[in-house]
Predict the 3D structure of the following.
Amino acid sequence: MLARFSEVYQSLSPGLRELRLTLYLLNRNALQRASLIVIAFLVVVAILAPWIAPYPSHAFSATNPQDKLLPPSSRYLMGTDELGRDLFSRIIFGTRISLQTALVAVGLALLIGVPLGAVAGGLGGWVDELIMRITDVFLSFPPLLLAIAIAAFLGPSLGNAMLAIAISWWPWYTRIIRGQAVSVRERQFVRAALAIGAPMSRIIFRHILPNTMAPVIVQASMDLGGVILTIAALSFLGLGAQPPTPEWGLLISTSRTYFLNAWWYSTFPGIAIFVTVLAFNLIGDGIREVLDPRTRKF
Amino acid sequence: MKKLFVLIAILVMAGILLVGCGGTAATPTQAALKFAVYAINSEPLTSWDPAIEYSNGIHVHNNMYEQLLRYDAIEKKIVPLLAESYEVSADGQTWTFKLRQGVKFQNGDPFTAEDVKFSIERTKQLGAGASYIWSAVEAINVLDPQTVEFKLSYKAPLDLIASTGYAAFIYSRKCVKEDNTWIEEAKGCGTGPYMLKSAKWGEEVILEKFAEYWGGWQENSFDTVVFRKVAEPATRRQVIETGEATITVELTYTDIEALKNNPKVKVYVEPSFQNLIAMFNTQKPPLDNVDLRRALSYAFPYEQVIKTAIGGYGRQSYGMVPYGMWGWSDQLPRYTYDLDRAREHLQKAGYGEGGLKLLLVYTAGNEAEKSAAELYKSELAKLNIDLEIRGMPWDSQWELAKGPAENRQDIFMMYWWPDMPSPYSMLYSTFHSEEEPLFNLSYYKNPRFDQLIDEANELTSTDRAKAEQMFIEAQRILLEDAVALFIYDRQDVWVTVANLQGFRFNPAYPTVVFFHQLTME
């Protein structure tokens, strides 16, 4: 067991070293350092939400109508919504929801996309052809439109929104992995494994796959921002989170009705989405820059 | 040669641009005063055929076409329109209408009894939209050019039917094709004060004044009326503030509060026949249990919802018939918000500990329904009942309710309004037994209730007082069985520009503005 573990560690350790270097390089750029700090802050906020939020119950079913639509004050830092709930508390819990759903959606997309890509690239032939044509079909739809169609078909809920995003997102990962796998397949160690008669499944998942993950990780980290935005869009359209879930997109959708009288209601959730997506996009750009030998600067 | 051509082309283009700019800058001038814009929240109409339209088009068609009679829901009386007077036989099955003389269609043809016969028979035969209102009519006889007689197969209130806001219009046969379908965008088809000028499907409809209208014209009446879709409530507030629109409705109450202090606009708070109800699924456990339904009726925060969700522009309902309509009665019992009584009934129902999970569906995009649902959720949480609320587009919400019984919702929230100014129209579609569910989304089946309202409907024209008592009795049954939450009777808040005169809303014709009555100061 232990031997197995160290074996895995050995195979990963170049990757870990690479990761440390990447973080170091990212940290040198002021903009990207700021994004890293913002993301770390958001993660902390998400984890500690029940302790940070002044009115944790306002994120769930509680209502407080006598304080409806109050402007920001010392009591309600970001004002209140149409049912008197503290917007600050709801946005804090919204962080948790956005990060969670984005991770789950991207995770699901990886779960579908990565094995398919590895199989396509590893086996080649008609399997490759078939899988790639399927991805072509999916990629020919605008991603948001496809997600809307799927979410509308499955029925409105946060779970279905995540599923819809995963279904419209996986082909990107399949393509990246497949491209990598095709080149890795020609490498000596794969040929060696073939020569000693290792079964194809073992070759694909033990030898090829671990060597194709780096670009996918980059892509996935960049996608987190886009996925958060898409979930907010679906909720805005009524196809994602359902009230009283304090999802940012849903908050903005509701606030639309009140925005001429309650500027704070759309502004703060808007800022939350803006900052989060910007941080993820910047960090994604940074990672790409650092990992690409042509743009990497020591 | 080619260069010269390009040069000329450029010069021509530039010329067109300049002329174009000059033209648009000069247009908004004198005509502005006689020009009205009604900013509405969705498509101006869904069908050009006045026999078929059963939706938004009510506000356009009621300015182009006329019925035999009109019902004044404020004064609660019938007003003559195309018919000057009418008589009903003692058995209530023969109705004779004396028509107005000298009325012309907008295309110049005279209006006669034959047109009445043609229109109603065609509407009935098409069987679309609200045409069911004529189901009692067996035959229509033209006695002379100014007199028409309706023979009914059973007693029905034909005066109310003939004044309905849908499917009761009289129109010219020239607008109907050989195959009985309507000529799209046909002009001059009605006898009403305005006729169709042009339209952009789904966006706007422009009507112009019919100079020879029998009702005559005032000096400051509008020559042109535009019905324009302005979907966002915040945008509707902006267009009424800038004066781009003359009249609008369906604003959020926070916007209304702000507009009340604006001297450039006038705000009218009018009763409407629209109410918010939430129907319990009486066929599916756990809500097939009447005590549980009573408990849920006591747990609803009525006052709070009226205050918060609609800013106080409404009143708690007594039963299904809205305030202002005959058949409304404050003698009916009503559930009030009382969690202790709710707990008592929960005990009786065998759910003392709560521990229930219920699904409430509402129409996505309706903020008042959403707020009401959220407030209800927070009350039910106190009883340890987990209410899942789901906002769905109307079509999916309705499909779910009509679909397989085991998947259906527990509570269906919606707005309801009558086709006809009669309690029957409030009670029939919603609670009368149905083979296949259509709008009886409580899936309620009670023969005693059915019989009571059917009989009351037959009595409507001959013995209104008795009919009214029976309708009230029928609602008492609904309340005892707690088949639905009767939440509030809504008020409509209309906002007009400050110098508009003569506005008076008639709740029997929801969302309709009768532009003929209006003038600009």
Summary: Chain B has 14 helices and 19 strands.
